[in-house]
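tl;dr need the bound structure. longer version: we got a ligand (adenosine-5'-diphosphate) that a collaborator sent over and nobodys looked at where it sits. i said id run it. heres the input, straight from their email, havent touched it
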Amino acid sequence: MILEVTMDLLQPHLMSKIVDEGVLGVAAQNTDDFSIILKLGSLMVLFAFIGCLGGSLNNILVNYSSQNIGNLMRKDAFSKILSLSFSQIDKLGTGALITRITNDISQVENFISFFVRGMVRTGLLLLGGLYCLFRINTDFGLIAVCVVPFIFCSMIIAMKKVEPYFLSVQESLDQINCILQEDISGIRIIKAYVKELYEKIRFGKANDELLAKQMKILILFAISHPIACNFIYIGVAIMIWNAGKAVAAGTSTPGNVMAAITYIIQLLHAVLMVVFIIQNISRGQTSWKRVKAIIETDPELTDGHLNEEPPQKQSFAAIEFKNVSFSYSKEEPILKNINLKINKGETLAIMGATGCGKSSLVNLIPRFYDADSGQVLVNGIDVKDYHLKDLREKIAFVLQKSELFSDSIANNISWGKPGAELEEIKVSARIAQADSFINEIPEKYENIIAERGMSLSGGQKQRISIARAVLKSAEIMILDDSTSALDLKTEREFYEALTKAKPDCTKIIIAQRIASVKRANRIVVIENGSICACGSHDELLKNCDIYKDIYNSQIGEEAKNG
Ligand SMILES: Nc1ncnc2c1ncn2[C@@H]1O[C@H](COP(=O)(O)OP(=O)(O)O)[C@@H](O)[C@H]1O
Ligand SMILES: [Mg+2]
């Protein structure tokens, strides 16, 4: 950069020499010796070339560093997002996370390259230009110094007005990303409800909002930039007027005047650049703050310090809830004083109306959320004492909503146990009752599943998710309403196969249907966040009214009479 600017500043000096010594000199002496013009001209070309070289090299290096910084920030932000708890991610929102990792980081990248280039270049040009002007003529230097504040002020006023809009532009982008993400993944439901127009309007509104904010920024700059430029031309005009008088008085030469005009234009443009850089700083800062909010967020869930698990005692329950209470927002408790022991190898079923807190209860075991009070113990150790990785490795979780990736069926199943043999994968698929339908697909296990499992039926997705959990050799298996799309016969066959294959595994089954849970060792019935009954199918039929009601509603009149 220093090379480029020095060359830029030398050009007017050479030009003034060409005019004064070359053109005017030759004319005065009435000779045809153009060697001085040729010499200085060649020098100008050489300097231009050197400046060009310095500029290119500088561009490459600056872009290299800014792009690499952006690249590192994206990776950092992404791994930070992966380490955040669900409640932290819920709070930030998907749209905002996407904007921050994409657009905001690009803004920061732009800022870095613009700032490094601009600040060095303008700084050098300003100082160098002023020095050269004062060297030519003190008056010329003073004129430049007087014009600078006008340009500066006109741009600063515009900037102050624009600044608040930067954050609001990024927030509009969040909104757009949020709608985009929801609508693209929910395109089927939009079509099913013929909501295209509604969504178009919703997206259009968010988009128009962005446009309005962007235009406010652009219009302010559109007005202020020419005004600032006018000050430059006024400065040049004053300079010419002054220089004309100086030449007439014999205190300056035409060559020097030409150089001075070039210097003042260079210099005042540099001032304009400074203002643009300041504007860029505030834009970059807005984005950087948003990125920093992710990078510097401390994960809510901290790793425990338990490095080595003590030898397991048979007396410890596989899982124990001790007086556990939990809420998503502090106002409304979702789980109240839960006390429950689940023995090793036991199959425990959880029943209850939707929204009663079944999923919330099992989410506490792998620490998807932390309990507000009370303790959750796994093998007699508080889940908070485990390293998250160790704890979660003990648990095979089938979520209520099957999550599949656009990859082959085999890879989807072996996702929790990379490098598993195909034979192992097939065994798990057989237990999950998925083998038969997979074998009917032409590419079988190599079939690539469409994004988020779009190419499969609900029951097929569930069975692949189950196979994935079966393959992961875990002590605890949690099935959160994950056989709901299977017919009763398939479901029964799955549970029989599972019990046979994994007798030692502690299983927690959340289900809506009595048929799914009646073979469990114990069934827990939850109502409004509390355990209201616990026992085997036969015991509950005798003692628990809620269970009896559910049973009766599912068996139907016909079976009761028969
Ligand atoms: N991430 C969440 N943020 C806030 N509230 C939630 C969240 N997930 C569930 N809830 C609320 O907690 C209650 C229990 O939900 P859940 O445990 O999923 O019920 P279910 O028994 O159907 O599995 C519901 O009232 C639900 O609205
Ligand atoms: Mg649930």
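gonna send this back to them w/ a short note. Residues 325 and 373 are 5 Å apart (CA to CA).
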